[in-house]
Structure formats: C-alpha cells, structure tokens
Amino acid sequence: MEISVQDYARECADKGLRGNYDVCRSDFTVEQEYDYTDAEQEVWRILSDRQTKLTKRLAHKSYLDGVEALGLIDRIPDFDEVSQKLRKLTGWELVAVPGLIPAPAFFDHLAERRFPVTNWLRKHEELDYIVEPDMFHDFFGHVPALTQPAFADFMQMYGQKAEGLIELGGGDMIERLYWYTAEFGLMQEAGQVKAFGAGLMSSFSELQFAVESPDAHHVPFDIETVMRTVYEIDKFQRAYFVLPSFSALRDGFEKSDLAAIIARWKDAPVLDPATI
Ligand code: HBI
Ligand code: FE
C-alpha cells in the first residue's frame, strides 16, 4: 500500500521537514510558484558563484557541458524554462516537489524521465550544510548531468528497476549504487579524476576533498563492489568510486544480472569503504 499525500504530509510535519506538503498532487508534485524574494535570489547567487569557481576546476566536463547547455545559473532557475531545454537534449523534464517524497513516487518520476526538484532554497545561515535536500542540491547538483544521454538513460532505468529490486531484498544495495554514483560519483577525464555526483557538486568542502585530497580514497567502479559497500550520511565519504564513463554505468546497470547479485550478497557482511 503506497502512502497517501495526507499521511505523508503529517509524517513530514512531525519530522520537522519544512516543505509544504498540504498542496501536493497525488504524485507529490506542486507548482514551482516563481515568487522568490530578493533575499532568496541573493542566497542562490552566493551559492552558485562560490560553487561555480570550484566546478570549473573539479567538475567533469560532462557536468560543465550540461551547465552550458542549460544556460544557467545567475538566478534561481525557472523549472519550466529549463525543462524545455532538457526535453530537447535527453527527453527529461523537471517537476517541482516540496522536498523529500516517498521512494515509490520518486522512482515513478525517474522512470518517466521527470526529475523532482525541491521548490524552496536553504537560508543564508545554511550555506554550508542543510539536512534536507533543497533546490540548490537538487538543481545545481543533479540537473546538469541529466543533459548527458548515457547518464539520463541510467537514471530512468534506475527508476524502472528499483521497486522490483527492493522486492528481492536489494533495497540497501541499490541505494548504495545511487549514492556512490548519482550523489558522490567521480569520473575519469583525460587521465584525471573529476566529480559529477550531486552530493559533491552541491558541497563546498566535500567537492574539494573528494577530488583533490591525498586522503580521499578513490576506487575503480565495479557495480558489485559498490552495491556491497556501506556509506556515510553526514560525514565525508570514506571511499569514492571512479567511473570510466557514463556508458559504463548505464551498460553495467543494464547488463548485470542484478537479481543474481542481490541473491548472492544480500545476507552477506557488507564491505567497509576504508578497506576496499
Ligand atoms: N525525494 N525529492 C526527493 N529527492 C530524492 O533524492 C529522494 C526522494 N525520496 C526518496 C529518495 N530520494 C531515496 O530514498 C531514494 O533512494 C529513492
Ligand atoms: Fe540528491
């Protein structure tokens, strides 16, 4: 039984999440309602300027190409305008949501090439860290890579397959795959390692750490290893997986026997990121 909007709204209010879930449609989307204050535009500009200085140096070319293609980012994006561009590039579009939404609804959107983006922005006091995903994370972090066809295909496929894999007991394993790629993934570029994951692209300190620190632990991407490796939620990751390309991610996900991988490892001890 999938959770109703009303029950989810109550849960979010109880947990202190700040989105307004009372106005959600049944698929948990809302109108973006582009009525941001000058103060909010200013927060966006500060975040975007500060982060763009880093991404020029540390982001993978495919992310930077995405930023260029979408014509971002000196003001809070209008989701409909960006969707028009994205539709032409990879067939994706953005939908506004009040924040975190239930996993089944999130997967359904991905399966239909719709990326849920939170319609509110963190406050000035929260430039460096925020508990919930906000618009800056969702948009600045996730959206540019959706201009890349192989990554765009991976995200759709992830949405299509996730629920079936969860039913096989693979919930934790596929979350790790998402975490170590869409959120904290690194990728080769002409003999160097660069970043593309949204958790990195939207973090001032971890982006620098993950790419440049001699203490960052870089591990070659292997889908089975990724699915077995636990991760950190509110500390820097103790391992980052390095993809050769987005095609390797898409093809690995498409061609691996994920049910067999889950059956093999779901009850086995997990891998420690420090020692892989
Ligand atoms: N909702 N808006 C939003 N953004 C997410 O990234 C998100 C979500 N709901 C659930 C969720 N992620 C995770 O549980 C995924 O692994 C599904
Ligand atoms: Fe995210």
Kindly summarize this structure in a few lines:
This protein is 51% helix and 9% strand. It is of the alpha/beta class.
Strand-residue fraction?
Answer: 5-15%
CATH structural fold name:
Phenylalanine Hydroxylase
N-to-C order of helices and strands: HHHHEHEHHHEEHHEHEHH
Arrangement of strands in the largest sheet: 4-3-6-5
End-to-end separation in angstroms reads: 38 Å
Structural class: alpha/beta
CATH superfamily: Aromatic amino acid hydroxylase
Count of runs of 4 or more consecutive helical residues: 13
InterPro entries: ArAA_hydroxylase (IPR001273), ArAA_hydroxylase_Fe/CU_BS (IPR018301), ArAA_hydroxylase_sf (IPR036951), Aro-AA_hydroxylase_C_sf (IPR036329), Aromatic-AA_hydroxylase_C (IPR019774), Phe-4-hydroxylase_mono (IPR005960)
Pfam families: Biopterin_H
GO molecular function, one term: phenylalanine 4-monooxygenase activity
Keywords: Iron, Metal-binding, Monooxygenase, Oxidoreductase, Phenylalanine catabolism
Write a concise keyword list for the protein shown above.
276 residues, alpha/beta, Phenylalanine Hydroxylase, 4-stranded mixed β-sheet, two-stranded parallel ribbon, globular, binds 7,8-dihydrobiopterin, binds fe (iii) ion, iron ion binding, monooxygenase, EC 1.14.16.1, Aro-AA_hydroxylase_C_sf
Model description:
- The protein is α/β, with parallel strands linked by helices and 276 residues long.
- The chain has one domain (5-265): Aromatic amino acid hydroxylase (Phenylalanine Hydroxylase, Orthogonal Bundle), CATH 1.10.800.
- The chain has 13 helices and six strands.
- The strands form two sheets. Strands 4-3-6-5 form a four-stranded mixed beta sheet.
- α7 (149-167) runs antiparallel to α8.
- The longest helix has 21 residues, at 38-58.
- The radius of gyration is 18 Å and the shape is globular.
- The chain starts with a helix and ends in an 11-residue tail after the last helix.
- The model has no long low-confidence stretch (mean pLDDT 96).
- Bound molecules: 7,8-dihydrobiopterin and fe (iii) ion.
- 7,8-dihydrobiopterin (HBI) binds next to α5 and α8.
- 7,8-dihydrobiopterin binds at residues 97, 100-101, 103, 106, 116, 133, 175, 178.
